[in-house]
Amino acid sequence: MGIPILDTILDVVKGPLDKLIPDKGKKAEFRHALEMEILRTGLAQMEINKTEAKHLSVFVAGWRPFIGWVCGFALMWHFMGFDILNWVRVAFFPEAPEPPALGGSETLVTVLLSMLGLGGLRTVEKLKGVSRER
User: Fold this and answer.
1) Residues 39 and 74 grouped into a single domain
2) Cα distances (Å, whole numbers) of residue 79 to 70, 72, 105
3) 32: phi > 0 → left, psi -120 to 50 → alpha, else beta; which?
C-alpha cells in the first residue's frame, strides 16, 4: 500500500484473518474496510492538529515548542552543563555541593528522537509549501 503503519497493522491482522474468513472476496473487502478506517482515523487526528495549531493561546498551540525547549535544555544540561558546572565546582569551589544530575537518559533520548522526527515532518511541510507561516 505504501503507508508503513497500514502494512504493519495488516500484517498483524493477516494471520487470523486468513483463518477467520476463508472467502478471498470477503477477505479483500474486509481488508479494504480496515484500511479505510485506519486512514479515516489519521485524517481525524490531522484535523485536530490543525485546530490546535490555529489557536491563539500559547498553551494550546505552543505545546510542541515547549516540549522542544524542555528537551533541548535537558539535553544541554545532561551532556554539557552538568560536566562543565562540576568542573568549575571542583576547580574553584571544592567545598560546594555537587550539582544535581539528571537520571533517565534513555527517556531523554527517546523524546529527542521524537522531536527530531517532528522536525523532519515540519521540513517536509515547508518543502511542499503547505506550512502555515505567521
Assistant:
1) no
2) 14, 11, 10
3) alpha
Cell output for 34: 480496515
Question: What is the span of the domain harbouring residue 72?
Answer: 57-134
C-alpha–C-alpha distance, residues 112 and 126, integer Å = 21
The grid cell for 84 is 562543565
Per-residue pLDDT tens over the stretch 17-74: 777 777 878 878 887 887 787 777 777 777 777 776 776 766 556 666 777 778 778 8
Strands of the chain (E only): list them. Answer: none
C-alpha cell at 15: 494471520
- What CA–CA distance (Å, rounded) separates 122 from 129? 11
Same domain, 96 and 84: yes
Considering the domain architecture, whether residues 50 and 61 belong to the same structural domain is answered as no
69 with 130, same domain: the answer is: yes
- Per-residue pLDDT reduced to its tens digit, 79-113: 888 889 989 999 999 998 888 877 777 887 787 78
Tell me: do 26 and 61 sit in the same domain.
no
